[in-house]
Amino acid sequence: MNIDTCFKGVLVTTVTPILIVLAIFPMRDWLTTTDIVMLQLLWVAWVAVRQNAALAAITTLVSVACTDWFFVMPYFTFHIEKIEYLVTFIVMLIVGLMISQLAGELSKNVRDTQLHANNTRCLYELAKTLNGLDDIAQQRKVFTIAIEGHLGILLKWDSKEGNAKNCEEYFTVKHNTQWGGFYTDTSLTAEKRAFIDTALSLLFQVHENSILRSESAAMQVKAELEGAKNALLRSLSHDLRTPLATIMGASSMLADENIELKQDIITEQAKNIYEQSEILNQHFNKVMELSRVNKIGEQLVWQTINVHTLVTEAKGRRQQQLSNFNLELAFDKATECLGDITLLEIALANIFENAARYGDGVATVQFTTKETDNVMHYKISVSNQIVNKRASADEGVGLGSVICDVAAKFHQGEFMLRVDDQTKIATATLSWGGKHG
User: Fold this and answer.
1) What is the tens place of the pLDDT at every residue in 261-281?
2) Cα angle vertex 326, ends 359, 422, to 5°?
């Protein structure tokens, strides 16, 4: 308690009752002792409500003494001749002390209610903020800032229990099998410790929810990937059947010694075998690339990527097929995004390959970003004019779309291919969000 506070307490409890007595002293002949006592009790009640019970009790004693000194004969002494005055002073003292006690309890209840309301408001705001975060490290940072601001202490995180030496308070947090805790060098009251324990329970629940969301998202991605794999196997069983049948038919014809074939027929059948072998080779290359995409996706590496470099490297992956393919970039060369550069390169390479196969040799690449709930969302769109149609289902272009879809799902995004029947413009869109969890 500082000097100003002490001086204010003395002024309230001693000087003010004396001033009140002096103010009504000229009217002593027109007021009874009971009237004066009632006026004094008004000030005692005010002190009890606005200050505290201790000051109100002191005020009561000073008021009784002032009333006896100034208003009870013989004046300016503490001698009491009549018993009724003694009864009045005793009642005044008892009532004043009761008011002090009741007002003290009321003030304490008000303070407790205000403290509880402030704590509840802080926990509500903390819960609302934490539930919007998926990263556990960010959750701990927000938790630390909130608790420090609310309690006015310095809170630190210790990754292993017991490493914080000579600290006043330590609060253990268990996350799965890893231990850690928050510690402070400030000695805390029981109320503050209880508040931190409650807040830590909230933090633990948010941690668990984040883990469950992450596991649920991983299971959903895994289920979608399994579905894509099954669809791929069904597609492969169909796409491989025709080339194999053609190869087997042509080769059996050439190998049959009982059939005499002209040279042009032999050349034609050999050409069929070569062409169908090329188709099979493309299928197997796509399968191997899909297998690589799945392996990379299991250990996704998020990094900052220059979009211009990403597009250039993706085109370089199909250097032979895209030698006469041109790209018109509709974005700034300094633009960046987040993601796994290898997966995104493979997905874009397949998009460019399909655009070159069915387009007119030119495609437009657009890149856009959008921020939602503090998470950046990225979208790459490749548009081209369609001039070639698929000759048959044997070309296996669908495998490239499957690879793009799998790469997008690993980034918790999606791949879409749309064709405008009127303008004959195909648009392949790869969209994904920033790092989740």
Assistant:
1) 788 888 888 888 888 888 777
2) 30
DSSP label at residue 386: B
Task: Give dist(CA 222, CA 406) in Å, integer.
Answer: 10
Pull the structure tokens for residue 75.
């004046």
| Edge-to-edge strands, sheet with 178-184 | 156-158, 178-184, 169-175
Q: Which two tokens stand for residue 407?
A: 């790469």
Strand locations in 72-163 (E)? 156-158
Backbone angles phi, psi at 383, to 5 degrees: -115, 140
Is pLDDT larger for residue 193 or for residue 32?
Answer: 193
> E strands along 6-123, which residues?
none
The helix-helix angle for 33-50 and 16-24 (nearest 10°) equals 150
Could you report the per-residue pLDDT of 319-347, keeping only the tens digit for each? 888 888 899 999 888 889 999 999 999 99
Three-state DSSP at 180 gives strand
Helix (H, G, I), strand (E, B) or coil at 290: helix
- Separation of alpha carbons 200 and 34, rounded Å: 58
User: Which single residue is written with the structure tokens 């579905």?
Assistant: 227
